[in-house]
Structure formats: C-alpha cells, structure tokens
Amino acid sequence: MGDGMTREDDRELLKAAYEAWESEKWPLAGELLERLARRHPDHPKSGVWWYDAALAYKFLRNWAKAYELGREAAARAEPNAQDPAFWNLGIAATIMEDWETARAAWRGFGLTVPDGDGEIVADFGATPIRLDPAGTGEVVWAQRLCPARARVLNVPTPESGRRFGEVVVHDGAPNGEREVNGQAYSVFDELLLFRASALPTMTVEVTAATPEDVRALAELFDEHGYAAEPASGVRIICSCCSEGSVRQDRDHQVGGGQQVNVAAPVDEVPRLLDGWCAAAPTVRSWAFPATT
Predict the structure, then answer these.
(1) Which residues of the chain are in CATH 3.30.70 domains?
(2) Candidates 2.40.50, 3.30.70, 2.60.40, 3.30.420; correct CATH number of 201-287?
(3) Which of 49, 77, 231, 286 could pair covalently with 37 via S-S, beta carbons 3.0-4.6 A apart?
C-alpha cells in the first residue's frame, strides 16, 4: 500500500481511534493513537497521530504522557512555523519542569525566550487569566513569566480558591478577550496551580472620602509587596459573556463605605490599615466585617 499501512487491523485501529476522538473518549483515543504511531513511526501522518495522542492526554491532564508523546510529535514538526506540537510540548515540559525541553519547544514554535538552565522567568506582558475554568471561572490580570505561566496580579475573591501572587500555568488557546483603553487582551484559561502564595486573602470594611483615598490604600499595600482592591471592582457576568469581549476600566476605585479585599500577612493588615487611617483620620476608617 502506498500509504504504508498494509494490515487491515491497522485501518480498523485508525478508524477506532478517531471514533473515540469524536466521542471525546480521551483515554481510548490516546491509547489507540499512540499504538498506531508506534507501529508506523515513519508513516507520513505519524506526526499527526503523535500530536493527537499527546493532545488527548493533555485534555486528561495527564501531563507525563502529554510530555512523552509531545516530544515525539515535536520531533516530526516543522520548526519556526508556529506548529502547535511545539506549543503543547512547551506547556507539558513546563509542568514537568524540564526547562531545557521547554526552551527548545518555545524556540521551535518561533518564540524568543531567555537563555539559561533553570526556570524561565521573563516579562511577556500582562494578560487576563480565567482561574478555575470549570468552577468559579474568575478572570484576573496576571504577569506572564513565560509563554505558559503567569503570576496573579489581582486579589482573587476568597471563593475562587486562588491568591494574589500565585503562579499558574495557562493554556495557549484564547477563550475570550478584555478590552482596556481601546486595546484588546486575550483571556487564557488556567490549567493548574504551579506555585502557591503564602499571602492569605481577607475582606475588610473601609470608609474613604474619595476614590483617591482608596487609591492611597492600594498603593500602600503595593509598596510592601501586598495588594488591596475594592470589591466593587468585581463584576459578575455569565460564562457566555465572560468568554466573549468585555470592556474594562483600568481604574475602578470609588469613595464611601465599602468592602476591600486584601492580600497580606494577617498581623500586617491592621498595622497597614491603621497607618492609612492616621494619614487622614477624619475621612478614613476601617473595621473587620461583623460576624453573625
């Protein structure tokens, strides 16, 4: 046969693999595609089979297998042509903390990453990340450290289970966008928590005369490496709208009585808030929310 597949059972294997794929039976699809690729490593379509097998294991969040099979797919991909085989390998290698392979994958895709032997840490700009896509789906802003990891810059709501300063691995496929000052930013879905933050999230009640007073509070926490954000900046929208285009204001401080989410060591919060109040005691006050 001209296509290199001479056995009837190979054709049946190919058919069964993609029937499982279409039915989103990822464990079976991954297993069958890997079996087919190993039988015919030199087949013209083997790169596609390796890629789809690795992708099936990515969907399963089986990163060891996605990494193993992704290496095979990338070995058969064309460098510097933005082939997704390199991107998915970059994600899997990042999660496995094989930084040498991750660097090679990003460069194979056509990206520039810094030299080195260890963890990739650079400035790839800010981007919105959807935390816990299957759960709360909260979208926060984060600083990209590499093509697949970002550090959370906002104070996520306590319900999200995430914290300010945490590093998450995110997908490479955009799932919505946020527009700020006329510029559109792609939203990427979180894949997993890469590095946790030790800073707890608390909510406090503050009274401030003006938005500038609230901005001063945020700046005070920022100066100490912490964060404080008005809860009024959180917008509740449906998942369909969240995955579309949403316009955002960069500055959402308001005056008056309100709740503020803060990320800082527990014993530091009262000290910082007292200092903020002392700078303008007639117009600023704070308290922990009353418990029932």
Answers:
(1) 201-287
(2) 3.30.70
(3) 49
3-state secondary structure of 271: helix
Residues with Cβ within 8 Å of 128's Cβ and at least 6 positions away in sequence, in order, are: 139, 140, 141, 142, 176, 177, 178, 185, 186, 187, 188
The arithmetic mean of pLDDT across residues 64-91, rounded, is 98
pLDDT value of residue 242: 57
Q: Where in the chain is the domain with CATH 1.25.40.10?
A: 8-109
How far, in Å, CA of 34 to CA of 36, rounded?
Answer: 5
User: Domain 8-109, CATH 1.25.40.10 — does that match?
Assistant: yes
Q: Are the C-beta atoms of residues 89 and 71 closer than 8 Å to each other?
A: yes
Cα 284 to Cα 89, 206, 279, distances in angstroms: 52, 7, 8
How confident is the model at residue 246, as a pLDDT?
56
E-assigned strand segments in 201-280: 201-208, 227-230, 245-248, 256-263
**pLDDT score, position 238:** 46
Cβ-contact 62, 95 below 8 angstroms? no
